[in-house]
Each structure stands twice: as structure tokens, then as C-alpha cells.
Design goal:
This protein folds into 3 domains: about 10-175 and about 300-370, FAD/NAD(P)-binding domain (3-Layer(bba) Sandwich); about 180-295, 3-Layer(bba) Sandwich (FAD/NAD(P)-binding domain), CATH 3.50.50; about 380-485, FAD/NAD-linked reductase, C-terminal dimerisation domain (Enolase-like, domain 1, 2-Layer Sandwich). Helices cover about 35% and strands about 25% of the residues. The protein has 17 helices and 23 strands. Strands 1, 2, 3, 4, 5, 6 and 18 form a 7-stranded mixed β-sheet that branches. It has a 5-stranded antiparallel β-sheet with strand order 19-20-23-22-21, with helices on both faces.
Length: about 500
């Protein structure tokens, strides 16, 4: 088995590797037919293996690289560890209004922040370790390349695994746009940026989607000079425009050089410097940086899986599945980034649970019935669930939109975190919640009440009847519900109520 190392070579990363790709691992000898063979030990694959094994199934789990997948190793876990450090630096430097002295004079140790991230990632990796899945869960864990050699056979490291059902959970990888000279000059992605040991003084970030925006803000707060280059006319192009605009203005205040409507023409390497040339509104501009970070999309990991041998259909967007996650081979299913446009860990988790029900127990659960929230972990965060206004209108549904600025929430005022709002889209004439967007420092935490309401079919009226602790920033949702109730107080209703109260006075 080929050795795998995680850079930089530190005690934390050696422990991480020992958990998620142990060098001394011995693959088990397969015996008989498995209830479920899972290819890929990322978020979806781990849930599939855990669920099937805990229900008494005979399970094989195959991982060619690092157990825990992107989320643990190069995604959610390290990025949020880094974002927390960036927030701490920002708070310390901007705390004068709270009576804290020091401001810009405080020092920051990038290597210490990275060491903390690596240490916590290693601690979390215990839960995803190969040994835990083998010893505690009874899963046959195979380290190596898994490849279908027939409709019901997977081969890994020279061993053949027969299966009743299989789950393709091989995930996706970072990709770079075809920019002349980019590969030669070298670049970072979310898969390599967490290996940095020194803070780049100047960093160009290509792509203003969630990954690009999160890391651009973090490195700005660490002290890097950031140029954020986006081909579109807005950052976070799929989000509510008002929400994205708040973040846009935040980035400008924090010193990020935003270059929108920019088409990159090429990259050149001059010594240790990288020169990025881009065209913008007919003019050519140049920026000189020390590193380039690409956050411009992901591609499914379909290469080398032998999908043709398994009679599984696929295309450039990934494995083709129906609403029940079944592929063109009725015994093979897929979940997670390999087949979903929503490339989130929590989506992969939810899809894996559907896969288990449908593949092992003849369930008929549907992906289309999922309510999928998401959050971009900038500061402030932008969280969303359900439909946007334009989506509902495109479906022919009339929408009533209500918005409450965070500045109207006492706790947000007291915290000094008034940049943002809560917005809900209702089906006109009802309290049915079609979608909601929250912009706040803790938007991802606040959104859950809306997600529950949409999933459970609860209207805004139910939220209005729910007591919310005061003072909390989540009270903004209660204020939205109260605003909805006030819209029901039409002039006719108000006159009727006034008449009733007058009659009561005798």
C-alpha cells in the first residue's frame, strides 16, 4: 500500500495520517457477499457504512486516500478552524468601542493558528478513523483504489468484493479554470491551502463563491493583501442580492481589492512572484502576488471507478441517479458530491440516509423531498433555506416578502453586530414559508428555526406563537413573525376590532 503524507510534516499531521490512512494497514480478506460495499469514506460514505453496520449488515468501506474525505481533511473542519482564528484577530483589532485597548498594535502568529487547526483536526479525526470503523463498528475497511469489474463486483488491492448493493460516494475535487500559465506558475486550492506554514504577504483569490469569499476574508484579517478576482458582476452570485451586497461592502471596508467582471488572460511566474493579467471593461490590468488561491468550482471523482463495467451511467456532472439515488444499475446507488449539485456535508449526510433506506430496506424516499439549507461562513454569515423570490415566481407562485434589519434587534445592537437582516418569502395570502435568508454573524445558527418550519410545514404563524428568549439575535425571526401578523391587520379588520372594543365599553 502506497504511503500517504499530509503536509506539513508535523506531529499533528502524522497522527492524522495514522487515523485516516494508516501506513501499516492490512486489508481484510473478503468472505461471502456484502450487504453493502461503499466506495469513498467521505461524509456520505461514512454515514452509509455506519448506518448499514449498526443495523446488522455486512459492510465493506473502500477509501483510496484519506478517510473523512474533504470535510475532515481539506474542507469544513480546517477552514472553520482557520476562520475562527481570523475572527479572533478581527475582534481584538476592532474592539475599541468596547473599551479594549491595543487595536492594530496586537501581534498575530499565523503558524500558531495553523498549528491549532491541525491539532483540532486530528482530534476530530478519531471519529472517522479506519481503526474505529473496523474495531468498534465491525466494518471491513479497505485502503486502496476501488473499481467495479462487473455489475456486482468491486476490486480493491487485488481482492474481489461481491455485493448485494453498492454505494458510490467518491465525492468531488477542486478544479482550476484553463488559464494560460496558471499550472506552470503554481496555485493553491482548498486541498492545499491548509498546508501553508507562512502567511503569504500578497494573495490573489480567483472566484468569489463561498470558498473564495471565506478564505479571502480570513487571509485579509491575518494581514495578507488580497485581490479577489471574479468573472461575474457580483460576489456570491447565487445568493440574495441584498445579502451579497452587505458582504461586498464589508469586504471593501476590510481592505479586500475586489475585481469584478474580470476575465483572467494569463499568469506568469517571475522569480518568486506571480503576475496575473486580467481584462476588465475593455482595459488590461495586472496584479503581482506571492500566491494564487483558486476557488472556482469542483468536479466529480468518476475517473478509475470502472463505471462502464458496472453499467452505471455518468457524465461530466457526476453519476446519474434517479430521485431515490438509484443508478442505471439497480443494485448500485450513489450519494453526496458525486451526484448532487448541493455539495455540502449536511446534504451528503441526508442523502446517505435516504440511500440506506432505499437500497437495503426497499424504501421509496426521495431526494426531491429534502429541504436543504446552506450557509456561507463569512463575517457576517449568509444562510439560506428554501426558494428565493425569483425561484418562486418562476414556478408561478406569488410571493410576499418580509424583511427585518438586524439593527432593529436589541441583542444585535448590544453585540455591535447590526450588519444584516432576516428575510422570509411567503406564499401570498398565507403564512406558508417558501424560503428565507439571514445575514448575521451567527446566521447559520439562527436559520435552523426556519429549516424546521419549512421541513415540518409550519407557517410563520406558528413561529409567532413561539416564545423566544430575550435578548437574543434569533429574536429577529420572532420579529418577522410579528411583522406578518401586522400585515393581517387590514383596515377592515382594524375597524371591526375597534367596533367590538367600543361595544364592550358600553
Amino acid at each position: 500500500m502506497a504511503a500517504v503524507s499530509v503536509l506539513p510534516d508535523t506531529p499533528e499531521n502524522r497522527l492524522l495520517t495514522d487515523n485516516v490512512h494508516p501506513a501499516d494497514w492490512t486489508n481484510p480478506e473478503p468472505s461471502g457477499r456484502y450487504n453493502l460495499v461503499v466506495i469513498g469514506a467521505g461524509a456520505a460514505g461514512l454515514i452509509c457504512a455506519t448506518g448499514a453496520a449498526s443495523l446488522g449488515g455486512k459492510v465493506a468501506l473502500i477509501e483510496r486516500h484519506l478517510m473523512g474525505g474533504d470535510c475532515l481533511n481539506v474542507g469544513c473542519v480546517p477552514s472553520k478552524g482557520l476562520l475562527r482564528a481570523a475572527k479572533a484577530v478581527y475582534d481584538a483589532r476592532s474592539a475599541a468601542e468596547f473599551g479594549v485597548r491595543g487595536g492594530e498594535s496586537i501581534s498575530f502568529d499565523f503558524s500558531a493558528a495553523m498549528e491549532r487547526m491541525r491539532r483540532l483536526r486530528t482530534e476530530i479525526s478519531n471519529h472517522d478513523s479506519a481503526k474505529r470503523f473496523r474495531d468498534e463498528l465491525g466494518v471491513d475497511v479497505f485502503i486502496g483504489e476501488g473499481r467495479f469489474t462487473g455489475p456486482n463486483i468491486v476490486e480493491v488491492a487485488g481482492k474481489q468484493l461481491l455485493f448485494k448493493k453498492a454505494a458510490i460516494c467518491s465525492g468531488a475535487r477542486a478544479v482550476a479554470p484553463p488559464i494560460p500559465g496558471l499550472a506552470e506558475a503554481g496555485y493553491l486550492t482548498n486541498e492545499t491551502v491548509f498546508s501553508l506554514t507562512e502567511l503569504p504577504p500578497r494573495l490573489a483569490v480567483i472566484g468569489a463563491g463561498p470558498i473564495g469569499c471565506e478564505l479571502a476574508q480570513a487571509f485579509t484579517r491575518f494581514g495578507s493583501k488580497i485581490t479577489l478576482i471574479e468573472q461575474g458582476s457580483h460576489i456570491l452570485g447565487r445568493e440574495d442580492r441584498d445579502a451579497a451586497e452587505i458582504l461586498h461592502q464589508t469586504f471593501i471596508r476590510e481592505g479586500i481589492d475586489l475585481q469584478l467582471d474580470a476575465r483572467i488572460l494569463g499568469v506568469e511566474q517571475h522569480g518568486t512572484e506571480k503576475i496575473v493579467r486580467f481584462e476588465q471593461h475593455g482595459s488590461i490590468s495586472v496584479v503581482t502576488v506571492d500566491q494564487i488561491l483558486v476557488g472556482a468550482g469542483r468536479a466529480p471523482n468518476i475517473k478509475g471507478l470502472g463505471l462502464e463495467s458496472a453499467e452505471v451511467k455518468f457524465d461530466n456532472s457526476g453519476v446519474t441517479v434517479n430521485d431515490r439515488l438509484q443508478t442505471s444499475n439497480r443494485d448500485i446507488y450513489a450519494a453526496g458530491d458525486i451526484c448532487s449539485p448541493f455539495k455540502f456535508t449536511h446534504t451528503a449526510d441526508a442523502m446517505a440516509r435516504i440511500l440506506l433506506a432505499n437500497a437495503l430496506f426497499k424504501g421509496r424516499q426521495k431526494v426531491s423531498e429534502l429541504t436543504i439549507p446552506w450557509c456561507t461562513y463569512t463575517d457576517p454569515e449568509i444562510a439560506h433555506v428554501g426558494l428565493y423570490e425569483q425561484d418562486a415566481e418562476a414556478k408561478g407562485v406569488k410571493v410576499t416578502t418580509l424583511t427585518v434589519p438586524l439593527a432593529e434587534v436589541d441583542r444585535a445592537l448590544l453585540d455591535g453586530e447590526t450588519s444584516g437582516f432576516a428575510r422570509v418569502h411567503l406564499k401570498t395570502g398565507t403564512d406558508r414559508i417558501l424560503g428565507a435568508t439571514i445575514v448575521a454573524r451567527h446566521a447559520g445558527e439562527i436559520l435552523n428555526e426556519f429549516s424546521l418550519a419549512v421541513t415540518s410545514g409550519l407557517g410563520l404563524g406558528a413561529i409567532a406563537r413561539t416564545i423566544h428568549p430575550y435578548p437574543t439575535q434569533a429574536e429577529v425571526i420572532k420579529k418577522l413573525a410579528d411583522l406578518y401578523n401586522r400585515t393581517r391587520l387590514t383596515p377592515l379588520v382594524k375597524r371591526a376590532l375597534a367596533g367590538w372594543l367600543k361595544w364592550q365599553r358600553g
